[in-house]
Write a structure and sequence with these properties.
This protein is mostly beta strands. The chain is 12% helix and 51% strand. The longest helix has 34 residues. The chain is elongated, with a radius of gyration of 30 Å.
């Protein structure tokens, strides 16, 4: 049988536990409320003022939103660690995590979202500093500023001279002033230099030999064949024993060639597709 003293002690313990539970619940309320009120907005940067801690973003519905960047706001850029508000550029795509506090939008995180376009280089215009890519039935023209980075296969840095008509590339770009502008061009194709040994016009395949190795290549749609400095050559223009450079991608053991050019072309020679001029 429980004594009066033990009953009182149990009542005290219950009261303490209840109070502790209520305290924890009340302490968790602000964090839960903050998490519940957290929102996100994706769009293009239209203005940024690091001094005033204000960021303007235009969404895909053409609605502009102005965010106040808090003192502990985190900035993430695809090309830089430990970014700041000063690293933001007009025209880049971002996702903003924020809270709406009585109509005041307070950002806690601003993360750049890469915009990429993958395709075949259709033309390069040195005078206009533009690059046109082709993907299926779509052509996309991009500006190529001097600060655009050129990345070769294997992560090596390259130059504009390494980008040729017919190459398969992936371009990371932004849209300052609504103009697609390349920030990085990644050359993905593998170069192979060899002597042409066989041509199959029906299957659209070719074989080439280098030293003791022979490779078979399947021609991609719109494969650029460089003949007499032009990229509109035909498969039948190639001849056995021609020494050629094949730019190709290896997909599950299948070599898909997207550019074939004479191996003796000067390093800085320009291959063009009429009527566009290029590098």
């Amino acid at each position: 049988m429980k004594t009066t003293k033990s009953i009182k002690w149990m009542a005290v313990c219950t009261s303490v536990l209840t109070a502790a539970a209520m305290f924890r619940a009340s302490a968790d309320e602000p964090a839960a409320a903050a998490s519940k009120n957290q929102k996100s907005y994706t769009g293009t940067v239209v203005s940024v003022d690091p001094n005033e801690h204000v960021l303007g973003v235009k969404g895909w519905t053409m609605l502009n939103k102005s965010f106040n960047t808090g003192n502990n706001c985190f900035f993430a850029q695809i090309d830089k660690d430990n970014a700041t508000a000063s690293d933001l550029r007009v025209g880049e795509k971002v996702t903003v995590s924020y809270q709406d506090v009585h109509g005041v939008l307070i950002a806690s995180r601003v993360e750049q979202e890469p915009m990429r376009f993958e395709g075949m280089v259709k033309s390069i215009d040195a005078d206009k500093h533009t690059l046109t890519l082709h993907q299926r039935a779509l052509d996309k023209e991009l500006q190529m500023p001097a600060e655009c980075k050129i990345m070769l296969r294997g992560g090596k840095a390259g130059t504009f001279a390494d980008i040729k008509v017919g190459n398969h590339v992936t371009v990371t770009y932004e849209t300052p002033g609504n103009t697609p502008t390349a920030r990085q061009i990644a050359q993905t194709s593998i170069p192979y230099t060899g002597t042409l040994t066989a041509i199959d016009l029906n299957d659209k395949t070719v074989k080439a030999k280098a030293m003791f190795e022979t490779k078979k290549f399947n021609l991609a749609d719109n494969c650029a064949i460089v003949v007499n400095g032009r990229t509109d050559g035909k498969l039948e223009d190639l001849k056995p024993n021609d020494k050629l450079v094949f730019s190709y991608d290896e997909i599950n053991g299948v070599n898909v060639v997207n550019r074939i050019a004479p191996a003796d072309m000067p390093p800085n020679a320009v291959a063009t597709s009429a009527p566009t001029t290029g590098y």
